[in-house]
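We now fix the convention by which a protein and its fold are recorded. The integers have meaning only within a learned vocabulary of local backbone shapes. A record is reproduced here so that you can trace the correspondence yourselves:
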Amino acid sequence: MRGRLRALPLAVALVLLAATLLAGLVVGAAGLPVSGILEALADRIPFVHVDSGFSVVDENVLFQLRVPRVLMAALVGGMLSMAGAGYQGVFRNPLADPYLLGAAAGAGVGATLVIVLVPGDPGYGVPLAAFAGAILGVAMAYALGSAAGRGNRAATLVLAGVAVSSFLSAVQTFVQQVKAEELQRIYSWILGGVGSADWHQLALVAPYSLVSTVVLLAHGRLLDVLSVGDEEAASLGLSAARVRLTVLLAASLATASAVAVSGLIGFVGIVVPHAVRRLAGGSYRVVLPLSLLGGAAFLELADLVARTVIAPGELPLGVVTAFVGGPFFVAVLRASRRQVET
């Protein structure tokens, strides 16, 4: 039925995600066999005992380094992609991005302040400050957009987000210059990555990610209704303003959860939802869940590239996604322009 998530696209997305997760567990400096990894994972299932033959060191490499890393990459990619789909539904614009409303700039300010002012931070202050900064940036953009008056609320919010992002970026630059010796650490966070992921960080953001996922998936049908116009939605008894606010908050929460633990990783929220629309249709009941799975798989692949292309070194994850997303953004922009002209 049109607008429903069919079994084949869902199965393909799940298989792709499972393959990328397994590849993320296998690839690394310590050579761990696929069979041993699968047996070690099975051994962690309650009431199941399988001898993987792994040493204590191998177990630590797998469960303290690789498993948190692949789970974090999947979480961040899924959140950014689904947030992008949510923003695009609210603004009816395929170029809308998860960092549209000042979330990235706010996260950058929060992380920079902790790096500069708390030199002895054990590593958990930066994610918390980035999360708080992302939420603050979105709140400022929404307050500014609401104060600007009525009219085209979507366009007003976009402009407010641009203004807030510019202001917060200026604040971040000022703080960086005050503490220039911390520039390397600041820029390494800004360029993004999941190499430092651990179980504590996963537990920190998992509840927020779960809440935003549930809310966004539950609003798929309502976003489909909004896509036909506010008047039609009102005739069906739907409050367009309330739906937009709810989706904006959930998408911003998803973005804040992602950037708090990964830094700034761009273009995921544009590349994946657009690819899903081209392959599986434009209904948000399809786009949102497939963007969640596709975004997780996409960032897993990007992380594999980041840690293998210049091994034993590692590229920043944001650089890899920019290499893919930059040309893709241009292609989407050209396609959108042709649609407007026709």
In short: The chain has one domain: 67-341.
